[in-house]
Amino acid sequence: MKTYIHCKSFPTPFLKTLSLLVFCTAFCSIGIELSFSQEPTLVLPLKTQVVPTGSVPRSANKLPFHHNVSLTVSLTVGTPPQNVTMVIDTGSELSWLHCNKTPNFPTTFDPARSSSYSPIPCSSPTCTNRTRDFTIPASCDSNQLCHATLCYADASSSEGNLASDTIYMGSSEIPDMVFGCMVSSFSSNSDEDSKNTGLMGMNRGSLSFVSQMQFPKFSYCISGSDFSGLLLLGDANFSWLAPLNYTPLIQISTPLPYFDRVAYTVQLEGIKVSDKLLPLPKSAFVPDHTGAGQTMVDSGTQFTFLLGPVYTALRSEFLNQTSGVLRVLDDPNFVFQGAMDLCYLVPLSQPTLPRLPTVTLVFQGAEMTVSGDSVLYRAPGEVRGNDSLYCFTFGNSDLLGVEAFVIGHHHQHDVWMEFDLQKSRIGLAQVRCDLAGKRFSLGL
Ligand SMILES: *[C@@H]1O[C@H](CO)[C@@H](O)[C@H](O)[C@H]1NC(C)=O
Ligand SMILES: *[C@@H]1O[C@H](CO)[C@@H](O)[C@H](O)[C@H]1NC(C)=O
Ligand SMILES: *[C@@H]1O[C@H](CO)[C@@H](O)[C@H](O)[C@H]1NC(C)=O
Ligand SMILES: *[C@@H]1O[C@H](CO)[C@@H](O)[C@H](O)[C@H]1NC(C)=O
Ligand SMILES: *[C@@H]1O[C@H](CO)[C@@H](O)[C@H](O)[C@H]1NC(C)=O
Q: Where is the Peptidase A1 domain (predicted)?
């Protein structure tokens, strides 16, 4: 028996962290949630600083980070403060920390050592009213505490109790932040997950980190040339920042089974390979009557996934434009990360890739162009004879069982991404994120 559930993204580093509507298996019926997590690839060593007044209307926190398979920030939580590292996930709501040390998850938060830690009873309005967008409803445990089960698209899951404690970001102290203190987790990629203490939920749901902080907006910029990045919480208005192009966030009033209403949903209108627009009707990008087919911006997912018909059209045009330039791997049994079935053989001795066609995602009001080597990704550890494998970084959602278009963080490199919650829109501009980070550290 299968059930569709509305899943939140869970960091599963290395694979992909998808925060999505997920197709759940029988596990769900016994209260274990599965989800496909595609993971943000940023590891952020973070220091929070208040941006000097004059450049911003109200104080904003900036967090420099480092990224690879996931985007992560470092914070401290509790009294006295404990260090934690959290994956930044715009695809899910509830932030959480591992609270139970196990061999798979050695990095934990210990609530017993925090005098400001407070579990949330299930009679609390936080438990009864603010968990309405959870895929699986919050419940009462035997101690009458609020219990949450989280579900991710990569078959990762996590459960524990809701609690609150003080979070410190640089000079800011945020009391009573609500998060999940998780006692049991299942990860499909424990190597990557073991590095992190938890996840920072950044979607539009009532208990997400940004909703609790009431930030009018937040932004991030992921460097394409090194492993740095910057997360800016709060308003930003910098003279050096190119004007952003905005695309509205799509909201629907009626709940639909496959539509995640608290995701950052934008409207994709087309895809170009070099300058050639794929011959697809706009309706190919519009959610159907079940809500399947929304386009989500997900920092918790590494690559980008497209519904079958759109993926097939893109694959075919990209193949066409790379024929004669690259050798295709002819092995139907090899599908990178279960969803990327277009890979190329590149001689190990060849230091650089040939010039590749760009792929442009065309949104209502804005475009995002993926160029250069970002279009392909070297499959780690894969060698065929004297060749390495490079796979196309766009995958087929259908192969993952995901009913949505998901824009992952790999395609957001060197793009200033602004999530404007007040005006319900996303702004973007191509920038050099390593330079933006340097300007910030100079206080510009
Ligand atoms: C990136 O992640 C991979 C897989 O976890 C790891 O092998 C590699 O060392 C990382 N690179 C950097 C620069 O952190
Ligand atoms: C927490 O992080 C700070 C800054 O990186 C470091 O100096 C300190 O030793 C860390 N504390 C623990 C207990 O790891
Ligand atoms: C941003 O800054 C410019 C010039 O510094 C100013 O004219 C503009 O009103 C500011 N915008 C906002 C939203 O504060
Ligand atoms: C690429 O597409 C063009 C135009 O549709 C077609 O004429 C050409 O034969 C295709 N090339 C390959 C290698 O498929
Ligand atoms: C790999 O390269 C070496 C040295 O050029 C050559 O001797 C060998 O035959 C090649 N192997 C394959 C499988 O092509």
A: 71-429
Q: What's the average model confidence in pLDDT over 291-306?
A: 93
Cα 1 to Cα 7, 32, 292: the distances in Å are 17, 15, 20
Nearest CA to ligand 5 atom 1: 386
pLDDT tens, residue by residue, 48-88:
222 332 323 234 566 666 666 788 888 999 999 999 999 99
The amino acid sitting at 14 is: F
Domains of the chain in sequence order: 4-17+53-214 (2.40.70.10), 245-432 (2.40.70.10)
* CA 386 to ligand 5: nearest atom: 1
Q: 120: helix, coil or strand? A: coil
CA distance 405 to 298: 10
d(CA 107, CA 194): 7
pLDDT for 183 beyond 60: yes
Q: Are strands 228-233 and 394-396 parallel, antiparallel or unpaired?
A: unpaired
Q: Using the mean position of ligand 3's atoms as its centre, give its distance from the Cα of residue 119 in Å.
A: 42
User: Does an H or E element contain 17, and which?
Assistant: none
Ligand 3: does its nearest atom lie under 6 Å from the Cβ of 237? Answer: yes
Average confidence (pLDDT) over 258-280:
96
Helix (H, G, I), strand (E, B) or coil at 139: strand
* Separation of CA 109 and ligand 2 centre (Å): 13
Percent of the chain at pLDDT > 90 equals: 58
Please tell me which residue, 51 or 315, carries the higher pLDDT value. Answer: 315
Q: Is residue 154 annotated as part of the catalytic site, yes or no? A: no
Residue 288 a catalytic site member: no
> In which element (H, E) is residue 361 found?
strand 359-363
Phi, psi of 337 (to 5 degrees): 50, 30
More confident residue, 11 or 163: 163
Annotated catalytic residue, options 235, 298, 414, 420: 298
Write down the pTM of the prediction. Answer: 0.84
Alpha carbon distance 235, 216 (integer Å): 6
Q: Is 168 in the pocket of ligand 1 (CB under 6 A)?
A: no
Res 13 pLDDT > 80: no
How confident is the model over 12-35, as a mean pLDDT? 27
